Amino acid sequence: MPPRSIVHLDADAFFAAVEQVAMRLLNGASFSWISLKKSSIQLPKCNLSTITMGKDSSIEWTDHTFNPWWGCSKVSPGCVNCYAETWARRVGAAVWGKDADRRMFGEKHWGEPVKWNAAAASEKKRKRVFCASMADVFEERHELNPQRKKLWLLIEFTPWLDWLMLTKRPQNISHMIPWKNDWPENVWLGTTVEDQQRANERLPDLLGHPSKRRFLSCEPLLGAVDLSPWIKERPKSLHQIDWVIAGGESGAKARPMFPGWARQLRDQCNAAGIPFHFKQWGHWSPVQAKKATLSSLVKQFWDDVSGEQVYMEAKGKKEAGRHLDGVTWDELPQVA
Ligand code: SF4
Question: How far is the CA of 296 from the centre of ligand 1 (A)?
């Protein structure tokens, strides 16, 4: 085999090269993904003495957030009060819905993860990147294919970053990713599970993939979710659930998450040894029956898991906090 020549590139040149490769792939060029992985492109050399990067995301369970584009369309009840749509509107970006264009970004934006990767390598400490908070990477739009291909390359070239890919469209994963059974070690695949129907629809698609980790974001949790069909009775063809995040909805139009729903997920995860992260109550949190006085801010509901009346108070996300029965649940999957 001829020796490979190694070329060191700065960030701009690196992404120009990535762009070229992506265009060749799009145009049906004849090299395979495997040969691409063995190509001579190296990560840009960064001046590590000038890079100090810690956590720059407000989301508890990630260090960074990366959006390959902005914009999406609603697909299920969890999307009704989509915070990303509200945020995009607030900053004047008309990128929501089937008819709207998506907002694309330039090379400076795409170069950020390369810097995060260099900083993580220098610290010898892996970092988590949430992808995406303002889009769904697996949205079915052809014009997003070049961005997706660029993203797959970026993931391969940033091995110190664990990419947490969260989607409400896991049915599209298998025909949009290039890896099949040969996933890079740094991809965690996740799907949103807001109620039992979405669990039934989405989990078989998510758990079919041998990615490094598979996680569920049960947020906003809108109904009881029984995970036992994918824990206790999991078919051999499906992989295990590695992490569950649960949380209630925030914002003035938020729908309450009943305590029984959160406790059921916590208890099922605890019994199966699955790390559990309780992100927040959201806008509504439970109050003790003896302290409750019904008003526009305190409402009574029937909790279908506990079989009891519960009182929920609209306190706002900050005051409602993130304790579940007095405990903070911040568990994470082990990483090497
Ligand atoms: S899939 Fe996510 S980003 Fe897209 S509309 Fe739904 S909640 Fe918003």
Answer: 29
